[in-house]
Design a protein that fits this description.
Oligomer: single chain
Number of helices: 13
Bound molecules: fe (ii) ion
Order of helices and strands: HHHHHHHHHHEEHHH
């Protein structure tokens, strides 16, 4: 069969909502785009454990500590499902991790911002996991089968993450004057970076058209961002807090909230590795990898022993 026919058949499958599976024929660019996206997503889950891990030892109560540990563990699990999904596209996990450590692979820029107070645990859950969910709910219907299936479970856990974040802020919002100020300050610092999580404007996003045609994405960056603003602008009222945007207002004719301009210079600076914590995050990952070498070696030695025993039996 000629390439032309293979491509046509592939597109017909996508149009009919048939999932693409690892052993199916796929255009090289489809494989590469998925591999890049899924591995970046895996890296984001793993690096994303760091800003919250920062507060496990300082959680204000045993209950809060248990909730935060569970959440951070969930993120580790998300990273592992996603590395496994990415491996089905023909790259080893070791290669992906090397690319992360060398700075070649990207992860979500949001994790390059510092978590300064306990209220940040609330703001991260509510805004960062909240923005991630918008994207991930769409991805439960993405065209690549292993990615779509991994997203179903991940989304269930993410919605718990968002609610625990909101509830953390709700408690602070009803607390002392200092607690309310801490709550507002965390919202102020996380709001704009959370909006940046949806990526560049559609007019400047290079991969968008093909990703829509191949149903890797089903909504554009700007559509998802608007959906997020509309949701959060209502929820923030329940906290009795505000979003740090003087241009935020309901637009009757659009049936959406209008909002102010994102600082795109800051966006590109952080993407390029000049964010407040880029270096710290990568150093922490490399250190964890080196210090965990003995665990990988021990697991390998154990697996080899089991294999030899099975052969002998
Ligand atoms: Fe996650
Ligand atoms: Fe999460």
């Amino acid at each position: 069969m000629g390439m032309q026919n293979l491509e046509e058949l592939f597109q017909q499958k996508i149009d009919k909502e048939v999932k693409i599976e690892p052993k199916d024929w796929m255009p090289e660019a489809y494989r590469k785009t998925n591999l890049r996206q899924i591995s970046q997503h895996a890296h984001s889950e793993i690096v994303g454990m760091l800003p919250e891990g920062n507060w496990i030892s300082r959680a204000p109560s045993l209950k809060r500590k248990a909730i935060l540990i569970a959440k951070v563990q969930d993120e580790a699990g998300h990273g592992l499902y996603l590395y496994a999904a990415a491996e089905t596209l023909g790259q080893s996990r070791e290669q992906m991790i090397n690319d992360l450590h060398s700075g070649k692979a990207k992860y979500s820029s949001i994790f390059n911002y510092p978590t300064l107070t306990w209220a940040d645990m609330g703001a991260v859950g509510w805004l960062v996991d909240g923005a991630a969910i918008m994207n991930q709910v769409m991805l439960t219907r993405t065209s690549y089968g292993p990615y779509a299936r991994a997203m179903v479970r991940i989304c269930k856990e993410e919605s718990f993450h968002q609610r625990q974040g909101f509830e953390t802020l709700l408690v602070l919002s009803k607390g002392s004057k200092e607690q309310r100020a801490m709550c507002q300050d965390a919202i102020n610092r996380w709001w704009w970076p959370a909006l940046m999580m949806f990526g560049p404007r559609d007019s400047e996003s290079t991969n968008s058209d093909m990703s829509m045609k191949w149903k890797i994405k089903r909504k554009t960056n700007d559509e998802l961002r608007q959906q997020f603003v509309d949701m959060i602008a209502e929820q923030v009222k329940l906290l009795g807090m505000t979003l740090p945007d003087p241009d935020l207002r309901w637009n009757e004719s659009r049936n959406h909230y209008d909002f102010g301009e994102i600082n795109w210079d800051e966006f590109w600076q952080v993407v390029k590795g000049n964010g407040p914590c880029n270096k710290q995050r990568l150093d922490a990952r490399r250190k964890a990898w080196e210090e965990g070498a003995w665990v990988r070696e021990a697991a390998q030695a154990h697996a080899n022993k089991q294999r030899t025993r099975k052969k002998a039996a």
